[in-house]
Amino acid sequence: MRLKPEQITILQEDLCAELVEILMNEWHYSMQESLSILYNSDTFTLIQDIGTGLYYQSAGYVYTFLEEELKKGKVA
């Protein structure tokens, strides 16, 4: 089954919402800080790139990429 662009967008948005929630819970960032961190990350770029397939992975799995960015200081 091939996903429609609208379905992919929904998956991407849901995944990002879950990642923001994780950032708020794990790192105690505000929602605004969490959104800024996510949107300025390489991980977000990968989620938006349909070719990576990251948009249909679990939030826990994708969070490992974002967490590594945070630990290594790559997130602007």
Describe the protein's architecture and organization.
The protein is mainly alpha-helical and 76 residues long. It contains four helices and no strands. It has helices at residues 5-27, 31-39, 42-48, 59-72. Helix 1 packs across helix 2 (31-39) and helix 1 (5-27) crosses helix 4 (59-72). The longest helix is centred in the N-terminal third of the chain and has 23 residues, at 5-27. It is globular and about 40 Å long. The protein starts with a helix and ends with a helix.
What is the arithmetic mean of pLDDT? Answer: 94
Overall helicity: 55-70%
Strand percentage lies at under 5%
Structural class: mainly alpha
Taking the alpha carbons of the first and last residues, their distance comes to 37 Å
Order of SSEs:
HHHH
Total beta strands: 0
**Main sheet makeup:** none
Low-confidence stretches: none
Radius of gyration from the CA trace? 12 Å
Secondary structure tally, helices: 4
Shape descriptor: globular
